[in-house]
Amino acid sequence: MEKCPLSFFKRKPLALMVAVTLGLSGHVAHAQESTPNTPQAEAQTDDDLFEQILITASKRQTGLQETPIAVTVTTGEDIAQTQVLDIQDLQALVPTLRVTPLQRSSNTNFSIRGFGNGTNNTGIEPSVGVFIDGVYRSRAAAQIGDLPRLEQVEVLSGPQSTLFGKNASAGVINVRTAGPSFIEAAKVELGVGNFNQRLLRGYYTNGITEELAFSVSGGINKRDGYTDSVVGLDDMNNRDRWNVRGQALYEPTEDTRIRFIADYSEIDERCCTVADVINGPTTAAVRALGGTVLDVEDQFEFKSALNQNSTNTVEDGGVSVQIDVDYDSFTLTSITAFRKNTSSYDSDVDYTSLDILTETGNTDIETFTQEFRLTSTGDNEFDWMVGGFYFSEEVDTGDVLYYGEGTRPFFNILGLQPLLESAEDVYAQPRNAFFNASNFVATDFLQENDAFSLFATVDYDLSDKLTATLGISYTDDEKDVSVSQVHNETLSAIDFDTDPTVFGVPLAFIPDLQPFVPTLKGVQFLPPQLIFPNEVEGGNTNDSKTTWNVRLAYEVNRNFNVFASAATGFKASSWNLSRDTRPFPSDQQALETASLTRANQSYGTRYAGAEESTVYELGVKARFKRGAFNVTLFDQTIEGFQSSIFVGTGFVLANAGEQSTKGVEFDSTFNLTDELVFSFGGTILDPVYDSFEGANGVDGPVDLSGTQPAGIHERSFVAGLTYNFELGNGMYGFVRSDYLYESEARLVENVPAELTREVGTLNASAGLTMDNGLSFKVWVRNLNNDEYFLSAFPPPIQAGSYNAYPNQPRTFGATVSYEF
After folding, report:
1. Are 120 and 103 in contact (CB under 8 A)?
2. Burial of 246 per CB tally in 10 Å (0-12, 13-18, 19+)
3. What is the tens place of the pLDDT at every residue in 532-585?
4. How far apart are CA 212 and CA 252, in angstroms?
5. Greatest pairwise CA separation for the chain in angstroms
6. Does residue 494 contact residue 427 with C-beta atoms inside 8 Å?
7. Which of 77, 152, 149 is CA-nearest to residue 765?
8. CA distances (Å), 474 to each of 179, 546, 597, in order?
9. Could you give the CA distance from residue 194 to residue 198 in angstroms, rounded to a whole number?
10. Could you give the CA distance from residue 7 to residue 15 in angstroms, rounded to a whole number?
11. What is the rounded distance in angstroms from the CA atom of residue 674 to the CA atom of residue 10?
12. Which region among 180-194, 518-532, 583-597, 799-813 has the lowest average model confidence (pLDDT)?
């Protein structure tokens, strides 16, 4: 895309507003825009310029302002200017979006309007669907900073299941990149920053023949960690990533377009910083053994007391082919994709320098997707779209939890040594058999998922100004899951309740041990897993649901539109692929009758049932001479919300009865002058658990009905100020700042209420571009060094202690690029 001289914006103030911002973040996309200083562009009206702002929220190209959907659009230019290198940075521009990175580089949780899940538990698919160039990414870890020639990112609020399938019950993040160009173009970018950041990115595109074009791109992102080890290990939270991407565009006729994409990326990092926020009574025991536990006063000192280096590796790659064929009255689109993601990690999970517990894990995910759709073309009173989507995925995941050299001393110093030694004598075990460093629990899961959707949508012009939309979709989703386990932890294999003659010793003959049985049971925190499928548990779920959306859109005039809509969403059952997966209580009798129960058998959930969401919206989209304003009122509900809570040793998965949010989201843009643009957007929410019995609280199961869900900010706002200037001789530049505010919110339900987060982060950047293609940029993220926690959790076997993930400190740097 050729660059615009500032003089054009002086002639066209509306064009400046469009070029800079028009989404919820205040920034919108230009799609297929003509060169602004051509005679053709000079003849265009302001309305023509607005019509070039194209989005694909409805899976057809439409103008942003005329599309009656609550959607936020952030341009590739905005992402480049603000040095957004991955999706988690995007929330600084989009107040309705919350992104939470967790324990590993491959785990990120998305929420829109406060709705969302998809945590470290691989079995929990996100409620917010992520699509890149039309291809669904079933798990997080999409690094949008690795994508060349990024056109825009569309964030769609509310259920989008009718067009986007089974895992869009809370919304969609739709990422679009530019295809290969038949005109030669290239760019190379070098960057440096604090913490020894080194950034290299570039792309090249050109035509091979009149029908075939290609592009290649790649990037390297390296940075030292910002968290220092207090015991002499490597620093934490470093960056070590690289990627490569190739595309081909084949247009054999005017009516046929074939786009092929192949990509591969690797991550090899030490993630993630954990701070001690509450030190419980076991802290003294660790320190008495010579271990280090960080002081709670050091929460944002970015220190680490781990006894080993953490490792996180991710290898992600895939291929996709999109075919578009135009016929007389419709277009046929086919998108075929295969992706493979392999990740592994090695972590010290007690978060002290004492060798108590370590965990390793690996996950292999192979995904195949196929979409077909037919879309009407032309200017008709009646527009339609029909299609189908097929999804097939295999997830092979597992982890091993190891006891360390400090595990038995840790329990001994807590006062359990005499009791443990007595139990070892009674049960004919060698000394120090319990909590021995050779003990481990290895758990493996295999999940196979096949799903398909059939969808149709119609738009009918009831009049010149009033359009009715009706969409319907049927989804069928089936999962088959199995679990196996190798467990050699001796103490947890003793059943003190149901088998009084374990190892041939009747408990009646050992009265001295009986009073201490509750204490011994209290430290049996890893009982053997009941594997499945078995005679009672089939390891299968099969969900189906019909979702719909209806909408009326009224065009008052070319610059003012109103709409009212209702829609439903669906997310299939999610399985608990963690050590804390337990049989349902309803299966207890059948399992006991079949003699399948294991020692210390406990009950909970294997999976959470399907989510069903409903939203009602009333929206206005308006534009005027020097700005634009969009607002949407909504009432959104999710029945059966899939809650996943980390309890120290694994995840507890449960369905909330109902969670709802009423609120408003808005965005506005004002051209204060021809050069100065102000944008302001926000989300105001009133979230509540309408019903949620048996939730996991600080002290165990609790009824959260009528309370505010944790992790949801009632108010979030973004404000941006951009100054564009021209220096003459073809040089022009920008100076911008962006501010994100999120009101105080409790972090997680099962941590103390005083652990909250409140965000007030300022980012800034400035750049200069010369007419020879050379550009310079300086940037700083978290300029004011804002401090808050991303999430929190209770660490294993340290009752009363809590850890949290601190946000990233101030980062800054500079880049130089050359483009032709």
Report:
1. yes
2. middle
3. 999 999 999 999 999 999 999 999 998 899 999 999 999 999 999 988 899 999
4. 8
5. 100
6. yes
7. 77
8. 32, 4, 39
9. 9
10. 11
11. 6
12. 518-532
Asked whether the CA dihedral 56, 59, 62, 64 is positive or negative, the reply is negative
Contact 385, 377 (CB under 8 A): no
Tell me the three state secondary structure of residue 652.
Answer: strand
- pLDDT for residue 145: 54
Which of 120-134, 191-205, 725-739, 801-815 is least confident? 120-134
Q: What is the rounded distance in angstroms from the CA atom of residue 18 to the CA atom of residue 21?
A: 6
DSSP string, 225-282: -SBEETTS---BS-EEEEEEEEEEEEEEETTEEEEEEEEEEEEEE-----EEEE--TT
Q: Is it true that the peptide bond before 515 is cis, omega within 30 degrees of 0?
A: no
**Which residues pair with residue 563 across a beta bridge?**
553, 619
| Residue 743 and residue 713 in contact, taking contact as beta carbons nearer than 8 Å | yes
Task: Please state, in angstroms and rounded to a whole number, the distance separating the CA atoms of residues 98 and 757.
Answer: 13
**3-state class (DSSP) for residue 456:** strand
Burial zone of 457 (CB within 10 Å; 0-12 exposed, 13-18 middle, 19+ buried): buried
Q: Which residue in the block uniquely carries the two structure tokens 């190379």?
A: 188
* Average pLDDT value over all residues in the chain: 86
Three-state DSSP at 160 gives: coil
Task: Give the distance from CA 274 to its chain's centroid.
Answer: 19
- The answer to whether 641 touches 654, Cβ cutoff 8 Å, is no
Q: How far apart are CA 76 and CA 90, in angstroms?
A: 11
Q: Which helix (H) or strand (E) holds 191?
A: strand 185-193
Which one-letter amino acid corresponds to residue 538? Answer: G
Q: What is the pLDDT of residues 496-506, one digit of tens each?
A: 765 454 445 55
* Alpha-carbon separation of residue 373 from 128, 349, 368, 385, 706 (angstroms): 22, 47, 17, 7, 43
Residue type, 562: V
Phi first, then psi, for residue 70 (nearest 5°) are: -75, 100
Residue type, 85: L
CA 742 to chain centre: 18
Count of all residues that appear for the chain in the document: 820
pLDDT at residue 740 in the model = 95
Tokens of 491: 């103490």
Extract the tokens encoding 704. Answer: 């959260």
- For the record, the structure tokens of 399 come out as 């982890």
Burial track 562-586 (b if 16+ CB lie within 10 A, e otherwise) = ebebebbbbbbbbbbbbbbbbbeee
Report which DSSP code applies to 636: E
Return all residues near 413 (Cβ < 8 A) that are at least 6 apart.
285, 288, 289
pLDDT, tens only, 257-281:
999 999 999 999 998 899 999 999 9
Q: Which range in 61-75, 116-130, 158-172, 505-519 is most confidently predicted, on average pLDDT?
A: 158-172
Q: Which residues contact 249 (CB under 8 A, 6 or more apart)?
A: 179, 180, 182, 212, 213, 214, 257, 258, 259, 260
Residue ranges with strand state E in 729-810: 731-746, 756-769, 774-781, 789-793, 802-806
